[in-house]
Amino acid sequence: MGSIYRQTKQSSMAAIALTMLTVLFSVTARSTQAQTYTPLYAFGAIDSTQNGPIGQLALGRDGNFYGIVNPGLAEIYKITPEGGETLLWSAGTEGSTVCSGLTLGADGLLYGTCQEWDSYTSNAGIIFKFDPSKGQSGFTTLYTFPYCGGSWFPNPLTLGSDGNLYGTTGYGQCGGDSNYGTFFKITPSGTFTMLHTFQGYAGNDAGDPSGALTLAANGNFYGTSQFGGNIGQNGGTLYEVTTKGKVTLLYSFTNSYEPFAGMTQGADGKFYGTTWEGGTYGEGTIFQLSGKKIKILHNFEQSPDNAAFPIFSLTLGTDGNFYSPSLDAAGGGYGPESLFEITTGKKSVYTDLFNLAPGGCSDATQDGCMMSSPMFLHPNGIFYGTTEQGGVYQGEDIGRGVFYSFNTGFKPYIILQYPQGTIGKTIGIFGVGLTGTTAVDFDGVAANFTVVSDTYLTATIPTGATTGYVTVTTPSETLKSAVKLTVKK
Question: Which segment of 94-108, 306-320, 474-488 scores lowest on mean pLDDT?
Fold first, then answer.
């Protein structure tokens, strides 16, 4: 596929991304098949200049969520699972900003990227660090991408098991022979290392990586790209990359599939994700990746699914199935919107769980509309997410976005900071009601631990531990991880 088409398509996808990037408790809730959707907070209730929230939410050690509102004047906020928002930082005089969500670091601080910063005056995007305890003074620019005429389109960051942050850019490479993106590492102190420059289909390589990378149980990262692949194919790729930058192409899509969101590793060790287009109806798919073999689990069709053209990563539930929001991204986000489930057994079953904006954005102002983040399964067993528009405050339609919960009846569980580790390594564990914890076991082997807060503790992988589930015994219940911890020798 020619570079002109690729760049045109890149601009189209970037426009969709920018559309996505563009105190009150609600008492109404709706229920569908025992699932309950509740709009908890209307953005703009505290700050009337606040625009819609975008990008992935980060769970802090305090059990609260942290996120970003955009576009224009970016702000970082904290919000409780009950919906109480606190504004922590504003871009102020930095000018126009477009940022992509937050990632919690091993040090408990927040990290993120911005595709646009200070109106491109001297950069092509940035990587930043934020200390919530310092408020407005807690923002630090760690790295500035060199300006080459436009953004490098840095994607959200992923925490590696070594405590460093890893990520990709969807474009850019000043002075190089490729504009198909890069793979990089950055330390918490800001040391930046370029590890790989993608070559696209001309080099049998990924091209224009999109979404956040997934840290897998083997310690490597797995990602998606909108373009690239084997020669003769240019519909996007699925790839694996090591912390040293060695890329292995796992699967090449034919034209017009273009996976936009990152993949998620399931409890079965396989990887799951979506394509933005392609499939039987050309409106996207859900796939399973096992080794280098792919299986299409679902072909999106707007009318029965109330969903199409998915752009968010899938979220693993404690039942082993996946959950995600979907909106008609190809229609600017104003098409069908839903929350859906896909099972992962021998016969996958797609279920439309809840629908937003059945008659357009104006018909769903209280629930919110224009989904703007992946769903996050909190340790309390409830999903949370955001919309970019909609929201009601004191009876008035604000329309600046909603923070919502989606309760499917899951029990509380624990989230492991890393999916793998070695004997003697200390990892963080997120949960609820951890104060007074009496035991932490790694596949049945007792471990030394330290309770940091009611929602976070650290534990050391003990001698004799093998790959298996981690459990935490609290005064009220025993919590279990949704996935096994891989213990590497």
Answer: 94-108
Under 8 Å between Cβ of 288 and 347? no
Contact between 219 and 420 under an 8 Å Cβ cutoff? The reply is yes
Residue 28, Cβ neighbours under 10 Å: how many?
Answer: 10
Contact 78, 88 (CB under 8 A): yes
Q: Which residue has 């499917």 as its token pair?
A: 408
Say if strands 439-442 and 426-430 run parallel, antiparallel, or are unpaired.
unpaired
Cα-Cα end-to-end distance for the chain: 45
How far is residue 240 from each of residues 223, 251, 267, 289, measured CA to CA in Å? 6, 10, 18, 12
CB 275 within 8 A of CB 236: yes
Q: Is 408 helix (H, G, I), strand (E, B) or coil?
A: coil
Give the Cα separation of 278 and 258 in Å (integer): 8
**CATH class, range 3-407:** mainly beta
Q: Is 23 helix (H, G, I), strand (E, B) or coil?
A: coil
Sort 394 into a burial class: Cβ within 10 Å, 0-12 / 13-18 / 19+: exposed
Mean pLDDT score, 102-122: 86
- Out of 33-47, 181-195, 326-340, 430-444, which region has the weakest mean confidence (pLDDT)? 326-340
Residue linked to tokens 């840095």: 154
**Contact between residue 353 and residue 33 where contact means Cβ atoms under 8 Å apart:** yes
Fold designation for 415-488: Immunoglobulin-like (2.60.40)
Burial class (CB in 10 A: 0-12, 13-18, 19+), 356: buried
Q: Where do the domains of the chain lie?
A: 3-407, 415-488
